[in-house]
């Protein structure tokens, strides 16, 4: 963990959930208070990872994937995530689908970043599971699988983690949580100005295409450039669950929303749906966003321009 | 261009409720996992050369998140089955669902912790340990 502390702000970073997580806390009451809050932020990320990791055989979601045909009691964290994932899947007609873990493994997205060990699941060779194979019982808070399903919550877990972690920073003058480009921003930055967010060029990730001015919101980006399949060329980690392949139409989607969970989920779904259907999805849910096509054509929701610095 | 819906989005409400639902569960994250692991090292039992007394034994273990109750069945002086009978932990029994079989494999309570379920794992180990204590360990 790297820590930089000064009167105006406290900054700490750590590698968690296979991502660089940075916390910036503005005008903390004391260094001890800042450190306590940052520890809690990182603890939330570890908790989410312990529940959701598709690469650890003993994570809660992987234990669940082996329980077929009976209702399995799950933790509140896993229950809430799966409930949201299923609602999003129904809402998008399966363009977002958490049941794609098996497909992801077959495409080579199967290695733990921490141990380097490959994960092999029983359903990895079977017929394609869908979100309809997952059922929840709201009264009992159980999840039932009618076949082995590797539930992939990777598209939602970072957004959820930043929402949960934000609680640790509540009551301070301002803060930013940055989990590999997925952000939660509050108040003003260390210089008293608005938080500034750069939208990367998905074709040249070192380059910033535009700068946004955002606060009191989550900003999440789904893009195809970060992780690429080791088994199938031209497939990156954002696959269309309905076809098992990546779509070429979209290079990145950036969504600004009140929660990271919503921003993360809608960005992923919009990526798969393509520019027009994707924008309609964002508008339907009252969030702002920018969709960049493969040729870098911009499709933005009407209120997005207000965020451009 | 599609008209913006004037109804609040169900998905937005659900995402806020999801966060609140986890907070309401009262996750305690301030106890560093390292401390819990250190506590467990005092619990590792010495190898039992003569075997356990036959019978069914109950035990319980405590954690900051609640208690774990187990039943241990000993037949022909060996541990043949372990059940998690009941938990009052905020985490579900499924989080440590693999531990009963691990106890049977090892023939003692010194099983590995489950990542992310350290407190429940510890409570489970304590529970098995207390059950085995009455079995003449």
Uncertain runs of chain B are: 1-6, 30-49
Low-confidence stretches of chain A: none
Estimated radius of gyration of chain A: 19 Å
Between the first and last Cα atoms of chain B, what is the distance in angstroms?
75 Å
Oligomer: heterodimer
SSE order of chain B, one letter for each helix or strand: HHEEEHH
How far apart are the first and last residues' alpha carbons of chain A, in Å? 32 Å
What fraction of the residues of chain B are assigned to beta strands by DSSP?
Answer: 15-25%
Helix content of chain A: 25-40%
Average pLDDT reading of chain A: 87
With strands numbered from the N-terminus, the spatial order across the biggest sheet of chain B is 1-2-3
**Computed structural class of chain B:** alpha+beta
Structural shape of chain B: elongated
Biggest β-sheet strands, sense, barrel of chain A: 9 strands, antiparallel
Please give the largest β-sheet of chain B.
Answer: 3 strands, antiparallel
Strands of chain B, total number: 3
Helix count, DSSP H or I runs of 4 or more residues of chain B: 4
What value does the Rg of chain B take, in angstroms?
Answer: 20 Å
Helix vs. strand class of chain A: alpha+beta
Figure out the total of helices of chain A. Answer: 7
